[in-house]
Amino acid sequence: MKSRSQGRWIVVVAGVLTLAITASALLSRAQPGLRISIPALPRVPDFLKVPHPACLDCFTYICPTCYVVFEEVPGTRTIIAREMPNPAPLEPGEKRLDFDLETDLPIWYIGHQPYIGPTDEQPFSSEFPRPKIELKRIQVRHQGEIFSIPGVHAFGIGARGFLVFLDPEHLASETLVPTTIEGVPVEVQLRGPFVSLSHQASFYRPVPTSANVGAFRPEGTIDGTSGPHIVLNSPTRI
User: Got the DSSP string for the chain?
Assistant: First the structure.
């Protein structure tokens, strides 16, 4: 009886050792195969960065499709994309409209992409006649201090100046938000964090350079209506 029990244990141990050895062999063969089968990631080409006459800190890149103008805001190490004309040369047979047929508004181009509406060198709204690019630069310079305020979850440009969105759970922080920033009025909106939903059954083309369109709350926008409610810039830190 004892010899039978020992025999069963020997069979079990031998099976476990065989399984371990087989798995180890398969793994050692599979790993080199995996390394060989994974292709190398394509290298992003290094395009030449060249100054652009739009401003002292503006630049673009020399490449067949590079027409967006960028600006590095001095002292911030932050790059913003400019919303300004920089059209591509006309291709053979290409025709471009100067005015939109529906709204009769002027059309300007970045590359071959048409845009309708003001550039960032024009006022963001008629209620606050300061060029949008000035507001974007001020926003970049102060976004660190604004977002350091507990409860602040958005900081954007509105029709009458800057908008700061503060979570109502941090109501005490409202006194920490400045009333003006470099002469620009600041309005505080007590709203919870936004929830981004794809498209919200509406499409806006083309989306302005360096803008997020479609930061919606589930019940609609911050004023209870549908559609985009604010343009929030998206600067890139380098």
Answer: -HHHHHHHHHHHHHHHHHHHHHHHHHHHHHHHHHHHHSPPPPPPP-PEEEE-TT-TTEEEEESTT----EEEETTTTEEEE--S-EEPPPPTT----SB-TTT--BEEEEETEEEES--TTSEEETTEEEEHHHHHHHHHHHHHHHHTSTTEEEEEEETTEEEEEE-GGGGGGGGGS-SEETTEEEEEEE-PPP---S-TT---SSPPTTEE----BTTBSTTS-SS---BEE--EE-
Are the C-beta atoms of residues 161 and 184 closer than 8 Å to each other?
Answer: yes
Whether residue 232 is predicted with pLDDT greater than 50 in this model: the reply is no
pLDDT band for position 161 (cuts 50, 70, 90): very high
Phi, psi of 217 (to 5 degrees): -85, 155
Q: Provide the pairing of β-strand 152-158 with 180-181.
A: unpaired
CA distance 232 to 75: 21
